[in-house]
Design a protein that fits this description.
Blueprint: H1 2-27, E1 38-41, E2 47-53, E3 67-69, E4 72-100, H2 105-111, E5 115-119, E6 125-158, E7 169-172, E8 175-192, E9 195-247, H3 279-300, E10 304-308, E11 313-318, E12 326-328, E13 336-341, H4 343-348, E14 353-358, E15 361-366, E16 374-379, E17 384-388
Parallel strand pairs: 12-14
Antiparallel strand pairs: 1-2, 2-9, 3-4, 4-9, 5-6, 6-9, 7-8, 8-9, 10-11, 10-13, 13-16, 14-15, 16-17
Helix pairs in contact: 1-3
């Protein structure tokens, strides 16, 4: 009786351990698991698994466990690291401004350097070239400048050099001028007693007036320099895991069954005890296992598949949920991808917006569920994202 109770306890413990193991395997978090971007098998049997990691991903999450495939056992021997980089380029126009005393464009162009070394606040830099068509010169300001306007008039055939014959004001170009000075010349004379006596005079009168005008105080010249500026951006890090293969030895031959001598008798089997009372416990354990395992599978499974080549080649898997609506494609090379969200997740997220990220680019898409698995085509080169029906 004691032996039977011990046997029942052993079976119970085995079932509980089986449930615990299944639950642990089902509940193992997949958030940190990494999938290789490429798997190669070399002629010597070595398998190379390539992983492309972003700065947020940890290389310690790369799987290192020994695995078996096609009768071979593969063991990790080395992990190599290679950093990648990319060049960011942008067309830029930089305007300069300076002051000159002259507005002569020929002189101004001589003051401008043909090129300009430029560095932007975001790290992009390069050499820009002067755009001659963009050079403009404008007056910086004006001031009033006073000056004197003058005009002369001649008055011939005057009988005497008398100022009363000379007008005191004249109008010249719409401006009134005042008499400033008069000079006299003898225009005609007669000889009396051998002496020349003036008979008529010519008067040359000078008239002046004060005037003012606006003059430029200086000039402002603007010019544009244009060209491409660039910056080298550190990209993803490529890790390659090397697995050496070794053929598994065939299993040993089964040992022969023990035989009994004629003099001895085989041990009599113990009477089996009814297990009817044990069945409810087994059923309860199974129900718990299924419930826990199913719940863990539902919450931890990867519900997004990432494809290449028009949904023909599976490249990776990811997981999204109502609390994490982001699909990160940064570890993958290329610009065009096909994304498939399973039917249940698409129905749950219907009408909500998910984001698809690849490096520095992020595109947004609003899910419109129509009763099937939801497919999206993404092209980061053209910056487009659309559903595929």
């Amino acid at each position: 009786m004691k032996h039977t109770a011990t046997k029942r306890l052993t079976v119970s413990m085995a079932l509980i351990l089986l449930c615990f193991g299944f639950t642990t395997a089902a509940a193992e978090p997949e958030g940190s698991e990494l999938f290789p971007a490429e798997v190669q098998t070399l002629e010597d049997g070595t398998i190379l698994k390539t992983y492309i990691l972003t700065e947020e991903q940890n290389p310690s999450d790369i799987p290192r466990e020994t695995f078996e495939r096609d009768g071979w056992r593969y063991t990790l021997t080395d992990i190599t690291e290679q950093r990648t980089s990319d060049t960011e380029t942008r067309y830029h126009t930089e305007s300069v401004e300076f002051h000159t005393e002259s507005g002569d464009m020929n002189e101004i162009v001589k003051l401008l350097a043909p090129t300009l070394d430029y560095q932007a606040s975001d790290g992009l830099s390069g050499t820009l070239t002067l755009d001659l068509a963009s050079v403009k010169c404008e007056a910086e300001g004006y001031k009033n400048s006073n000056y004197t306007v003058s005009a002369t008039r001649e008055y011939p055939h005057l009988s005497a050099n008398d100022l009363s014959f000379i007008p005191k004001t004249i109008t010249d170009n719409g401006r009134e001028l005042q008499l400033e000075d008069v000079s006299w010349e003898v225009q005609q004379s007669i000889n009396v007693d051998y002496q020349d006596i003036p008979e008529s005079y010519r008067a040359i009168a000078t008239y002046t007036a004060k005037a003012s005008r606006k003059v430029v105080t200086g000039y402002i010249t603007t010019a544009s320099y244009t060209g491409e500026i660039t910056k080298t951006v550190t990209g993803s890090t490529v890790y390659t895991a090397h697995f050496a293969g070794k053929e598994i030895n065939p299993p040993p031959s089964p040992k022969p069954s023990p035989t009994f001598s004629p003099a001895s008798e085989p041990p009599s089997p113990e009477p089996e005890e009814s297990t009817a009372s044990f069945i409810p416990i087994i059923m309860l354990v199974i129900i718990i296992v299924v419930a826990v395992g199913g719940g863990a599978y539902f919450f931890l499974r990867r519900n997004v598949r990432i494809y290449r080549d028009n949904f023909r080649v599976l490249a990776a898997k990811d997981k999204i949920s109502a609390s994490r609506k982001l699909i990160d494609l940064s570890p993958l090379n290329g610009e065009r991808f096909g994304i498939e969200i399973d039917k249940l997740t698409a129905k749950t997220l219907n009408g909500q917006t998910v984001e698809v990220r690849h490096g520095l680019h992020t595109l947004s898409h609003k899910i419109a569920y129509e009763g099937n698995a939801y497919r999206i085509e993404v092209d980061f080169g053209a910056e487009t994202i659309q559903a595929v029906y």
